[in-house]
Specification:
Strand order of the largest sheet: 1-2-3
Length: 239
């Protein structure tokens, strides 16, 4: 039976992807669960890219922005498993630790502005221009491989990955190392301003006291591979 594909409304609006007109995805099937079952926090970047290569068409999954990639994670969770995501929180009202179920379908989708363009021209404090782009899945894999070798995070490395230049990465890093901290703040501000994807924040009602609040939503692997009981509840089954 031929697989059915669905067009994705990605938060990037496809703006960072030259020549890409649409991105489509198929539903997960039993044959995909072996790979999903192998996912860990340590191998997530590479394994999930492999999975995307099997289920997404229209774009190289390594070229997806990190915001689009996370949107796809949530899309798969909702459409292939369940919209429910159980987490533990501290209630702001009664100050007790409680379990709540977040509705992933209610998380806010954050799109890039329609007038966003890449490469983005950012004016630094001395009036010079630096050109920037969104970080991608391949960037993240490269960065984590680097961190694994160096055994420490490196903000300059990550920012240098987003610089659009004919220079290699080493020269881009050397350039950034000579910038003022204010200029580095401007570059970080670009990434903050043009964040896109899914906002990991949700309202909740405390099951103990009935108090309402807003909580951060943590990323865990069970967002993409929830337990069977959670799936059953979302389908109206009691197992």
């Amino acid at each position: 039976m031929e697989d059915k594909y669905y067009e994705l409304s990605l938060p990037s609006l496809l703006i960072p992807y030259s020549g890409v007109e649409k991105v489509e995805i198929r539903m997960l099937k039993g044959r995909d669960e072996k790979l999903i079952g192998e996912l860990t926090l340590a191998n997530f970047e590479k394994k999930f890219k492999t999975l995307l290569g099997d289920i997404v068409r229209g774009i190289d999954p390594g070229k997806l922005t990190l915001g689009d990639r996370f949107y796809i994670v949530v899309w798969l969770a909702i459409n292939c498993y369940t919209h429910l995501y159980p987490i533990e929180i501290f209630c702001d009202t009664c100050l007790r630790k409680v379990k709540v179920e977040i509705d992933l379908g209610q998380l806010e989708k954050v799109d890039l502005p329609k007038d966003y363009r890449e490469p983005y021209a950012l004016t630094l404090t001395d009036g010079s221009i630096i050109h920037l782009r969104q970080l991608t899945v391949d960037d993240q894999i490269q960065y984590l491989d680097y961190v694994d070798v160096k055994q420490k995070d490196d903000l300059i490395y990550k920012l240098a990955q987003s610089v659009v230049s004919d220079d290699d990465l080493v020269k881009r890093m050397e350039y950034l190392e000579e910038l003022s901290t204010r200029d580095l703040g401007l570059i970080r501000g670009f990434h903050d301003k043009y964040y896109h994807g899914v906002k990991l924040e949700s309202s909740y009602t405390c099951p103990k006291c009935g108090g309402a609040g807003v909580t951060p939503v943590p990323f865990r692997l069970d967002i993409i591979f929830p337990d069977g009981q959670t799936i059953a509840r979302s389908l109206g089954y009691n197992i």
